[in-house]
């Protein structure tokens, strides 16, 4: 209501006249930076809300057993059975599903790989001789020996290849390929060139592939079941037929 604007805002005319000069010196505003920050905060909030919703809707298994044959599995704990009962169920399922009776039975073994000093056992591979063989297949085994008497024993017990230093060149050139390698202690200093080639198949006492009892080693690696630790603590292998 003042007749002149200078009475209300003294010095307004000088400030308005100086505004264009100041506008040229001031850098242009960036309205998009603030918008981007708000969007980022909003995205973090939405993520946190989604995680809270997921945690809230997580179902916990109940302790009681279902009363019907049809039920939601995540409402109940997974049942566990004794070995004999589980094998009987497998045989029953085989008859109901009309599957082949010679199909394999697999097992998952979970190992405790932790040690007392906060270290873990490194994953390993080994061979075990099962009391009941479930397959007629046998592995090819090569025996390293330069003793003619030991070589004859190896051939009688089913060795695929028997020889000494002359086999090194053929193995390096992939002319000889077998499943396992066993050796007697006397020839080990001459097999050093094969260490990088054979790696874990290199004969050693730790894997029971180095020793004087050639028939025992041949039986283990011809008829044995080889297994290895997967995913740091799990052994997944087949152990029988239905």
TrEMBL record:
Record's subcellular location:
Mitochondrion
**Domain of life the protein comes from:** Eukaryota
Which of UniProt's keywords are assigned here? Mitochondrion, Ribonucleoprotein, Ribosomal protein, Transit peptide
Cite a GO CC annotation: ribonucleoprotein complex
Q: Where is this region: Disordered?
A: 34-60
By its UniProt entry, which Pfam families does this protein fall under? Ribosomal_L1
Entry-linked InterPro entries: Ribosomal_uL1-like, Ribosomal_uL1/biogenesis, Ribosomal_uL1_3-a/b-sand
Identify the stretch annotated as signal peptide in this record.
none
Q: Which family does it belong to?
A: Belongs to the universal ribosomal protein uL1 family.
Put simply, this protein is called Large ribosomal subunit protein uL1m
Species: Balearica regulorum gibbericeps (East African grey crowned-crane)
> Taxonomic classification, please?
Eukaryota, Metazoa, Chordata, Craniata, Vertebrata
């Amino acid at each position: 209501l003042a007749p002149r604007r200078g009475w209300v805002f003294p010095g307004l005319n000088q400030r308005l006249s100086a505004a264009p000069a100041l506008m040229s010196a001031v850098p242009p505003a960036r309205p998009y930076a603030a918008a981007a920050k708000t969007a980022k905060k909003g995205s973090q909030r939405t993520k946190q809300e989604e995680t809270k919703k997921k945690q809230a809707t997580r179902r916990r298994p109940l302790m009681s057993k279902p009363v019907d044959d049809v039920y939601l599995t995540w409402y109940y704990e997974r049942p566990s059975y004794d070995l004999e009962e589980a094998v009987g169920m497998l045989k029953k399922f085989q008859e109901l599903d009309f599957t082949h009776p010679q199909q394999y039975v697999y097992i998952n073994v979970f190992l405790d790989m932790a040690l007392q000093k906060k270290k873990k056992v490194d994953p390993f591979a080994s061979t075990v001789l099962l009391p009941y063989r479930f397959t007629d297949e046998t592995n090819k085994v090569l025996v390293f020996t330069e003793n003619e008497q030991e070589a004859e024993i190896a051939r009688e017990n089913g060795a695929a290849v028997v020889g000494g230093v002359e086999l090194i060149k053929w193995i390096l050139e992939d002319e000889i390929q077998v499943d396992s390698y066993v050796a007697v202690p006397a020839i080990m200093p001459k097999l050093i060139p094969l260490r990088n080639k054979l790696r874990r198949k290199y004969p050693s006492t730790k894997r029971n592939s180095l020793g004087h009892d050639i028939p025992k080693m041949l039986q283990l690696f011809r008829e044995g079941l080889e297994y290895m630790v997967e995913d740091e603590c799990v052994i997944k292998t087949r152990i029988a037929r239905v």
